[in-house]
Description:
Elements: H1 4-17, E1 21-27, E2 37-43, H2 46-62, E3 69-72, E4 77-81, E5 85-91, H3 92-98, H4 100-103, E6 108-110
Parallel strand pairs: 2-5
Antiparallel strand pairs: 1-2, 1-6, 3-4, 4-5
Helix pairs in contact: 1-2
Amino acid sequence: MMRLKQKLTTIVSEVLNKKAYDPVILDIKKLSSLADYFVIVTVDSGRQAKAVVDSLIIKLKQKGEYPFGVEDTGDTWVVVDYNDIIVHIFQKKEREYYNLEKLWIEAKKIHMDIKE
């Protein structure tokens, strides 16, 4: 099992490697029992969303981490739940519509300097 920060870094790095963009990491541990972090990214298509999810799952399985679930709302918003980290992969229109960053405005934004 990976340490939390290591898992977070691996997740962000992997989604960026698959050309997801506009990553936002929200620290929600003091606001909710859902998870410690949300990772929110944007993709350009359903096909890209699937590639990001598949790649992320494979990468983390190699490190002994398995998702608790994957919720696919028709390729416009895919959620990958790693219990302590929940990854939201949106197409642009849906990300703007649901605006999780505004919904969780009280969450601390985490900056990670990760090279794509």
